[in-house]
Amino acid sequence: ATAGFELVHANGGIKAGGRGVIARSFFGAPMGYNDTIDFTGGNRPGPILHVIDNVFMGSDDDILDFDSTDAWVEGNIFMHAHRNGSPDSASAISGGSDNADTSQVTIIGNIIYDCDHAALAKQGNFYTMINNTVVHQTRAGGTEPVAGVIIMADPGTTEGAGFHLEGNILHDIENLVMNQTAAAITFTNNLMDLPWSGPGGGNFSADPRFNYVPQVFETTNFTTWQQAQVMKDWLGLDGGSPARGLGGVIPLGVSISGEPE
Questions:
Q1: Could you tell me the CA-to-CA distances from 205 to 98, 131, 235, 243 in Å, in that order?
Q2: Bridge partners, residue 11, by sequence
Q3: Which pLDDT tens digit goes with each residue over 179-227?
Q4: Is the N end or the C end of the chain the one with fewer CB atoms within 10 Å?
């Protein structure tokens, strides 16, 4: 970009009987106080937005901003979301309430690297995060005073309904949860660097044994979707990893075995 604008902006939801799919695309970073994708509308039981297997190179605000929008976010690579010039937080996935509907977002099988926050759910939103890899969650590179993996409100906004996190790898992180007062948050069977005393269980801390943990400078010059796929190789797990079956670099879908021929 040579000027500030949101790369995808939609506020009409999805037409009845239609589909909303953004798949296998490469998004450079927008400039200034602009989201990469700002999408409003599309709630169950009608069609919802699907964001699948894309690469996002960063944002000075949010990468995905879903206000009053239900969505399925799967298999993406999110990088370098840091607050710079934004009046509020910067996250890989964010959302609030634009009307009477809230956002219910499923976040599954993604890599989230070098972001202030992995996800923000404010104003009654609820997110489910399953089998994601969050590495180098840090506010370095931006102006956010404090940051964490998930955040429940921006200054001056009401709190989200909550999060359910299961099967994730949360490595090299500053905090788990920010701005929680009454939100329902559950951590279950995650490998994570920091302890959690709230609802859930089965969480543990260990070296995930990634194939390779890149330095930030090694991840800033991708110019194609294909180049960025090396992140899935780097943040894959070696054969002795205690996190096998966890994180964002695993086969997704359904497996059936043992059935009669």
A1: 38, 16, 17, 10
A2: none
A3: 999 999 999 999 999 999 999 999 999 999 999 999 999 999 999 999 9
A4: C
